[in-house]
Amino acid sequence: MNILAIESSCDETSAAVITNGEIRSNVVATQLIHTLYGGVVPELASRAHQQHILPVVDKALNDAKVTKKGLDAIAFTRGPGLLGALLVGTSFAKSMALGLGIPLIEVNHMQAHVLAHFISDPKPAFPFLCLTVSGGHTQIVKVLSPLDMEIIGETRDDAVGEAFDKTAKLLDLPYPGGPLIDKYAAEGNPGAYAFPLPEMPGLDFSFSGIKTSFMYFLQKQVRENPAFVSENLPDICASIQFTLVNILLKKLKKAARETGIKEIAIAGGVSANSGLRKSLLELGQTLNWNVYIPAFEYCTDNAAMIAIAAHYKYLESDFCDQTVSPLARMDF
Questions:
Q1: Which positions does UniProt annotate for Fe cation binding (predicted)?
Q2: Measuring CA to CA, how many Å separate 106 from each of 18, 161, 174, 317?
Q3: Is 134 exposed, middle or buried, given 0-12, 13-18 or 19+ CB atoms closer than 10 A?
Q4: From the annotation, which residues make up the binding site for Fe cation?
Q5: Annotated binding site
């Protein structure tokens, strides 16, 4: 069983081939043009996807040593994501599946992030909790099976990935700023500066207030000392990262306590953050959790995670027809 998977939800054009549940290739083309604008420009992302998708798919098939006629299905990210970017991948997948006369499989991007844990060992046991953290989403998901998931907590406003990038922008760090916050934080003191933690009911998150608080903090410090940022960058990054990670783990700890689940995973682009990974492992040891952290290559957007999700849907004959359209917002 060979499935070609396509990911085009934001600014990564990716294609992967999976054979009987084993990833054979995973090709990603990154769009560097967005660094010029300090963030993803949707129209430019769509155009770049059009330029990249043919060579990326061709390389994925060649790397896997699978021909088009050897494919059993085509999978694609239906959403959530940028509508124009999704449209490129959706249209390509529909056309290719129609031309080859093979089934079409739609995949939820966020479910795929969770299922990235099943690409390689060790794999979490069901049920498990997955903290999915990215530039567009922050969720706590209770996973009962590969195709049965429930969101039990999510952000009410901004995602944690956006909070990382926006605070980096306030520090005049280039886009994407989240990884740079992580880099400088490794050299700083996380207790140097304190920021207020939001009070949200239940298992939901909020990150808009911490961004505002951080902005006012910087404005005050820079008025008193124009060189404040350059003189204290590692400590600033370590302190804001510590705060954001603390917000995430506080809710995750509460979710584990309320559900009684000790199988704990993280997924999404922010799961590549070294501060989050380290703090989660330490918390897991303290609370006797079994912690699962994906390989770096499967944290950010990639087609391998779309492929593994499609693998499970194929086993259930969960196909879609040619009338399917992309969805910028898409529930589980």
A1: 109, 113, 301
A2: 15, 25, 34, 12
A3: buried
A4: 109, 113, 301
A5: 109, 113, 132-136, 165, 178, 182, 273, 301
Place of tokens 């003191």: 189
Whether 308 and 105 have beta carbons less than 8 Å apart is answered as no
pLDDT in tens, 127-175: 999 999 988 899 999 999 999 999 999 999 999 999 999 999 999 998 8
Contacts of 296 (CB under 8 A, 6+ apart): 272
- Condensed to tens digits (0 to 9), the pLDDT of residues 235-262 reads 999 999 999 999 999 999 999 999 999 9
Angle, CA 71 vertex, CA 66 and CA 76 arms, to 5°: 110
List binding-site positions for substrate: 132-136, 165, 178, 182, 273
Say which DSSP state 140 is in: E
The residues of the chain that CATH labels 3.30.420.40 are 2-114+301-315, 122-294
> What is 2-114+301-315's CATH number, 3.40.190.10, 3.20.20.70, 3.30.420.40, 3.40.630.30?
3.30.420.40
Residues in the chain: 332
What residues pair up with 105 in beta bridges, in sequence order? 75
Task: Give the dihedral of Cα atoms 200, 280, 113, 272; nearest 10 deg.
Answer: 110
**pTM (two decimals):** 0.94
